[in-house]
Amino acid sequence: MSKPVELIQPDRGQAAIDIHLVNKDGFADWAKKLTAGQRAALEAQKFDGSGYQVGIVPDGEAWFAVGGVANPAELSSWCMAKLAETLPAGTYRRVEGDPGPALFGWQTAQYRFTRYREEKDAPGPRVLLTRDPKAIDPVIAEAAAAAKVMDLVNTPAEDMGPAALEAEAEALAKSHRAQLSVTKGETLEREYPMVHAVGRAASREHAPRLIHLTWGDEKHPVLAIVGKGVCFDSGGLDVKPASGMLLMKKDMGGAAHALALAGLVMGAGLKVRLHLLVPAVENAIAGNSFRPGDVLRSRKGLSVEIGNTDAEGRLILGDALARASEENPDLVIDFATLTGAARVALGPDLPALMARRDDTAQALLDAGKAHDDECWRLPLPESYREWLKSDIADMGNAPSNGFAGASVAGLFLDRFVGEAKDGTPIDWAHFDTFAWRPAAKPGRPKGGAALGLRAAWHMLQARFG
Which residues contact 347 (CB under 8 A, 6 or more apart)? Predict the structure, then answer.
């Protein structure tokens, strides 16, 4: 993507190409204002105001653009994205009003992942003007955070292993004068035994670690953000088929979301004491892989019997959530590409949301709906806890009945989120996100995707801003 600051600029009356937005119902009346030649030009392009249509209209020696939207009076993040994808390089202005929420999709529509190949014929930037200068910095920051998630998830595992996630956290810490600690080796085995067990079979270059960034005034409410950082998931000894491994570079999508969200929190200066925790591992296969039937210790002291080595994300999150709980947080949010069950239930576009408190869940749902990042709440049924029972340990990591997989994984994590100092359950929300878009949509390219990021960010702004 072009540098975000290049794509959104304040409208100071500079020269720009006009954009008109119309819908199918209002197109006929709007077209009456045009000349016969202009109407003929749109007719030749089969433009009728349908959503995401783009038309070019000659205007003397110049031209203007017209875009089809659902409702010109209520724009979405994506309604001008097709224009940003298809119009030639230049500077543009919406005529009938300000782009508002469409500023976000205008930027993400121009995202390109170019780490491994150069786009020789890539168009130059399409710049959109806004009459609301105060909206520019926040929307640029949001688009940059979404692009960060896409970049990290799109990068293959060889170049985005645990050490690379550590480097991303280090760069983030330097940018915001945060403190960073990284736990590895024997100390990791002692303090975060499940993180160590899952990652110990990887090569030295991809050795496991617990990344912990802290920032903000210690007097402020504690916000903990946790992200699953499985940089590649072979399934372990319960090995995945080849088709199941093909996209497993994206299994660190939770960590990508957590890093991006932490950057937004620090960049906006929210009045919180931030703890970002990323357990970073590769679930590899070797002679020292953890096995089905093993019993692992955990940071919290609970013992976990391994029913499936491919249910490893919940193990590393368990240790990280236990550590986050030790800070007596006001709120804990975790992101994870955790279960296929969530995708079966909700498909690729809707992150599954689970939460202990109804008001927290509703705030996240409302923020997502308001900012075109919808989530769907799944339950944490008390009666399903029995499915995590083990005959020889405190709990198992993978029930065998195949029911309610996303919720049962959430219940597993819930065991590792502690209580506040006053004895009440810590406020905790869990996003089971896909972090991937299998097919492109306007403003949402195929590949790595930020799903749940904006919902969480706007909820946090409302709560702590």
Answer: none
Q: Averaged over 308-316, what is the pLDDT?
A: 98
Q: List alpha helices for 284-378, DSSP H.
A: 313-325, 340-346, 358-370
Calpha distance 308→288 (Å, rounded): 16
Give the domains, in start order, of the chain with CATH numbers: 4-110 (3.40.220.10), 141-464 (3.40.630.10)
Buried b (16+ CB within 10 A) or exposed e, 226-247: bbbbbbbbbbbbbeeeeeeeeb
Tell me how far apart the alpha carbons of residues 231 and 454 are, in angstroms, rounded to a whole number.
23
Is residue 448 a contact partner of residue 150, using CB atoms and an 8 Å limit?
yes
Q: What tens digit of pLDDT does each residue of 405-454 get?
A: 999 999 999 999 999 988 999 999 999 999 999 999 999 999 999 999 99
DSSP 8-state assignment for residue 249: G
Report the run of H or E that residue 161 belongs to, with start and end.
Answer: none
Task: Compute the distance between CA of residue 334 and CA of residue 355 in angstroms, rounded to an integer.
Answer: 10
Q: Is 93 a catalytic residue?
A: no
| Burial 199-214, CB ≥16 within 10 A → b, else e | bbbbeeebbbbbbbbb
Dihedral in degrees, nearest 10, Cα atoms 410, 188, 263, 433: -30
Question: Pick the catalytic residue: 314, 343, 356, 454?
Answer: 314
| Number of C-beta neighbours around residue 160 at 10 A | 25
CA distance 436 to 58: 39
pTM: 0.97
DSSP reduced 3-state for 40: helix
Active site residue 314: yes
Single out the catalytic residue among 240, 377, 385, 441.
240
Residue 30's pLDDT is what? 97
Residue 400 — very low, low, confident or very high, per pLDDT cuts 50/70/90? confident
3-class DSSP state of 47: coil
Indicate if the pLDDT at residue 110 is higher than 90.
Answer: yes
Q: Would you say residue 337 has pLDDT above 90?
A: yes
Question: Measured in whole angstroms, how far is the alpha carbon of residue 222 from the centre of its chain?
Answer: 21
User: In angstroms, rounded to a whole number, what is the distance separating the alpha carbons of residues 442 and 446?
Assistant: 10
Check residue 119 and give its pLDDT: 79
> Residues 48, 24: contact at Cβ < 8 Å?
yes
Range 93-115 average pLDDT:
96
Q: Which segment of 23-27, 119-123, 167-171, 178-182 scores lowest on mean pLDDT? A: 119-123
Three-class SS state of 83: helix
